[in-house]
Design brief:
four-stranded antiparallel sheet, eight-stranded parallel sheet, EC 3.5.2.3, 34% helix, Dihydroorotase_CS, binds zinc ion, hydrolase, binds N-carbamoyl-L-aspartate, alpha/beta
Length: 346
């Protein structure tokens, strides 16, 4: 695996080759939605960490294996490695031993914090036994880190939980999923066993973009986008190549009728624009050489991943983002629908 992407600046089109890009946090759903969105991820990425918040959640070995097969079937012919996760609950040592062979990690949701998380953890102390087994067995813990407090403060309030877990389980790799605040970026540097993913939207937008003018349902997600200084801190960490910060799109498709509704579902659909939009962002900051690490290298080093060898080529040529993606009776609207991105997949 090469450390750096290959850049061909002499080409007027400017081609960027990414080696085995990975999406470290992805919702593919199931059924017809899975059939529509899986190929849009496998067209760009060599692999992805697949979230388990289906209804019912993916919470045992049989469910993981069956879901993995449905994901592979939906990706068609693309070489794509689904890194499966199981929904956190109290698991026995025997169950964890079986799961360890099948999953990348176990994903903890505080009960009710986000989409399909009702069966999540109600009291963190009930989770300790399983976490301690995970630590012994080397199974990473992925966390949706939000309290049940005021919406803008939920992540900041959860940071004490991360601190506590990182201290009490020093050999457990804990990934703070989709961080949105400057304080979470600072916490990353306090503990070697903490890692984090960050989404495309949280590098680009603030709450102003969601609700500062006309309400933009397709930018509404959990955790909600925060303040300009938070976005700056996330962007700075990503562009500077922070080794424990990884790209995780959190691409979370909901049918258009669930987004354009008086009760709007949380989740931004970014899978098909993620890599071109990231290339445009990193290019705009003169940091294209940092993209390979962000979308693959950091994750491979941290978790010892060996994704399938695949080269994904991007070019500095315009992409018009479709108004919607439709198929299999489903319709989903991507972020930046109808706009032009200066980069595209070759
Ligand atoms: N991010 C979101 O707003 N929604 C995600 C769940 C999650 O990752 O929290 C979803 O599954 O829709
Ligand atoms: Zn989440
Ligand atoms: Zn998510």
């Amino acid at each position: 695996m090469l450390d750096f992407a290959t850049i061909f600046p002499h080409d007027t089109r400017m081609i960027l080759e990414l080696h085995s890009p990975l999406d470290m946090h992805l919702h593919l759903r199931d059924g017809d939605m899975l059939k529509l969105v899986a190929p849009l991820s496998s067209a760009s990425f060599a692999g992805a960490v697949i979230m388990p918040n289906l209804v019912p959640p993916v919470a045992d070995a049989d469910a993981v294996q069956a879901y993995r097969q449905r994901v592979l079937d939906a990706c068609g012919g693309d070489v794509f490695q689904p890194y499966m996760t199981a929904f956190f609950r109290s698991y026995s040592e025997k169950e964890l031993a079986t799961l360890k062979e099948l999953v990348f990690g176990i994903k903890l949701y505080p009960a009710g914090a986000t989409t399909n998380s009702e069966g999540g953890v109600r009291a963190m102390k009930d989770a300790e036994g399983t976490m301690s087994l995970m630590q012994e067995m080397g199974i990473p813990l992925l966390v949706h880190g939000e309290s049940h407090g005021f919406v803008m403060d939920r992540e900041a309030e959860f940071l004490d939980v991360y601190r506590d877990l990182a201290t009490r389980f020093p050999r457990l790799t804990i990934c703070m999923e989709h961080i949105t605040t400057a304080s979470a970026v600072r916490l990353l540097d306090e503990f070697e066993n903490l890692a984090a993913t960050v989404t495309l939207q949280h590098l680009l937008i603030t709450l102003d973009d969601v609700a500062g003018g006309m309400l933009r349902p397709h930018l509404f997600c959990k955790p909600i986008a925060k303040r300009p200084e938070d976005r700056e801190a996330l962007l700075k960490a990503a562009l500077s190549g922070h080794p424990r910060l990884m790209f995780g799109s959190d691409s979370a498709p909901h049918p258009v009728h669930a987004k354009e509704a008086c009760g709007c579902a949380a989740g931004v659909f970014t899978a098909p624009i993620a890599l071109p939009r990231l290339a445009a962002l990193f290019d705009g900051h003169g940091a294209l050489d940092r993209l390979q690490g962000f979308v693959s290298g950091h994750a491979c080093s941290l978790y010892g991943l060996k994704p399938p060898a695949r080269t994904v080529r991007l070019q500095r040529r315009k992409m018009l983002v479709p108004d919607a993606y439709e198929g299999h009776g489903q319709k989903v609207v991507p972020m930046e629908a109808g706009s032009v991105i200066p980069w595209s997949l070759v």
